[in-house]
Amino acid sequence: MRTDTGEIIHLEDYQPTDFVLERVDLTFELDPLETKVEARLIFHRREGVAADRPLVLDGDELKMTGLLLDQEPIAAEDYTETGETLTIRGLPDSAPFEITVTTELSPQTNTKLMGLYRTNDVYCTQCEAEGFRRITFFPDRPDVLAVYTVNIIADKATVPLLLSNGNFLGGAGMGDGRHFAAWFDPHPKPSYLFALVAGDLGVVEDSFTTLSGREVVLKIYVEHGKEPRAAYAMDALKRSMRWDEEVFGREYDLDIFMIVAVSDFNMGAMENKGLNVFNDKYVLADPETATDQDYANIEAIIAHEYFHNWTGNRITCRDWFQLCLKEGLTVYRDHQFSADQRSRAVKRIAEVRHLKAEQFPEDGGPLAHPVRPTRYREINNFYTTTVYEKGSEVTGMIATLLGPDLFKAGMDLYFDRHDGQAVTIEDFIRCFEEASGRDLTQFSLWYHQAGTPLVSASGTYDASRQTFTLQLEQTVPPTPGQSTKQPVHIPLRFALISEDGTITEASSVSGAEVTGDVLHLVERSQSVTFEGIASRPVVSLNRGFSAPINLHFEKSSADRAQIARFETDLFARWQALNDMALDALVAATASVRAGTPVVCDQALIDALMATVSDDALEPAFRAQALALPSESDIAREIGRDNDPDAIFAARREIMTAIATAGRETFAGLFETMRSTEAFSPDAASAGRRALRNSALAYLVLAENAPTRAVEAFSAADNMTDLSQALTILVHRFPDTPEATAALESFQTRFADNALVLDKWFTVQATIPGAATLERVETLMAHPLFNGLNPNRVRALVGTFAFSNPTGFNRADGKGYRFLARQILDIDPRNPQLAARILTSMRSWRSLESGRAEHARAALSEIAAGAKLSPDVSDIVERTLK
Ligand code: 0A1
Ligand code: ZN
Hints:
There is one protein chain. Helices cover 40% and strands 21% of the residues. The chain is an alpha+beta fold. The protein is globular. Zinc ion binds next to helix 3.
């Protein structure tokens, strides 16, 4: 075990290493239980470092079997080894020297999936953030960049494929049944980007010619027999490569680019130089087994990892506090890519839904931290939606503030100036300041202050003066470790919509800088006056979600409907509908709790029906309009004393009211959106399926019978329709013979496809209601469930905790106690997975007191667990604080 459970790392303590690493030569002799690793590391002492300073290398659960200095054994008194560190004294003052460390590893029993491990008999590595130290003693930090040569030796018959980073140097048989391969990566890289994959895999090959005419070999490795399911990933890869050349001017830089899909992986994927390793969920797809969402995820993640080659690999992070430097920027880039490949507005709506569902609760709860944190105990716990998604939003705001041309100039400067370096957020920001001449000091607070800013807005129209005044206030709420906050620079895109629906331009504006449709809110309180406004306007504020804020702007339903009808920014139209729906849902929840009848705002129904019936709007957008705020969205809006059962009941009633009022329309859409052509995963076809399936969900509610869902399930010829029909049927009519039969047929049909069975586990784990806990417990004993595989655990336990508000938050607290048992069970074998699932408890304080008490008790039970990992103890302690 790593022993650093209590140690907090502080940004302000950053120091460069005493020794400079020049070269790394690694030799692996692979064996499931006794892999031998020889690491030859060439160092020299950094100029100015005192001659008596020792070399300190990082390790984690390592067994060292040899140690040499310039090929000579090192005397026992000259080094100290603890398993976590190796300290070597008496090293040369200025001349380069070579340290040779040999270690012995057991990949087969490495269940943490960090370092070198085995997945389905394939050897595979995961080194970000601190996995390389589980392979050998090493200066395992991102600012140590070196050139690597890697030799891999293994049994030829069982391990025919030997891969590592960079370009292939050569390989041959060794005459003893073994063979070797050598790889050389000419690009200096930090250890977290190292990768090795070895085993028996199938491959899909293609090639790509870069803008400058270089030919790059592309290979995607998957389990034998799954090659046809990698075609879409390959297509997405080629589109990503072209897009990065065209939009960011970035070309690929090796002779070969490889992707390997593995079935045991803690995260989505990993950007190792030239050898990306993917969770197979984000590679494999065909119409029979993948939903439209799966296709979209594959496209986005393939792009994300590929884009890291420039934002992350060529330019990397100085230390892990700078994680958003590569992650926020790369998410921004993959969002832009997906927006260009699909519908920009629909993509933006999905991003904002995700941000509000995942990042806002994090930012508003006990785990809140700045995009660029200044302290951590366990870095694995900082791969968060704040670092990724809020980090991307902050990058997007820089683009909004500067405009496209200056943003591009800043990016070009960043690539030019910092290529080959390990840098900080300050370096990044400086490039935009220099390119634009704009002072971004206040803007930088977005990186340093946690918490979602709240902007309160109100407007007054003066007919006699023809002026409109917008009063804006901003506050950033206190968060752990940050009790007071400064006002931030908030770029608010806006439009003033006049009575006839046109967008009004003011003759002049005072009280704020306005550039184009961007209003710059920089003070705590600002009064902005628009002159020359002929009639009372309706303000559409934060168009396109230009800033990741909570906005309180009281408006009548009629005003919201005006925006929903006339805005030219499609995102803002959706936002207006969603706000109307949220108002209605919050009011309905209050009615349920008060025991008074729920009444649904007719203006909401009218606005929704007008939108969904408007054939000029793309179907994917109309489907987004029909998807009401989730139960968690409603809970977040209410903020405190939440009763998940009341929220569920209220939402069901509002949906039923909409379903009943729109029954004819939904029946019509269910027919007209039917596809007559062969399946295609493109965005337009996916949009039609999305609209048809939401129509189905409402129809089933209106009809209050399972028949239509059963028919849709039988008729489905693709996984999107099949899984939607199954979900509607099972969630609405659980335990009916129809639901049971459908679940059974699904299981039989896909029994040999673990990724599809994950959907089967998830559908059941998310059935609303208290009874689901018993179902989940039964499913954990199912022969097809495997508690060692992270995808299975997330599909069943993870979705139950994260996505089943009524089931998980049972009033008797049994859901929380179940989670506590699971966390304590998973933690010893896979701490990262346990810690991540535990973050599902982050909003416990906003529950009503009975549930909150049960939640606290369950958290305390975890905290009291013997030998908790640093990952879990960090999360549980912060959650309880
Ligand atoms: N850098 C990867 C995410 C990642 C982080 C940690 C991991 O360790 C298990 C794996 C992957 C990305 O952003 O895609
Ligand atoms: Zn990433």
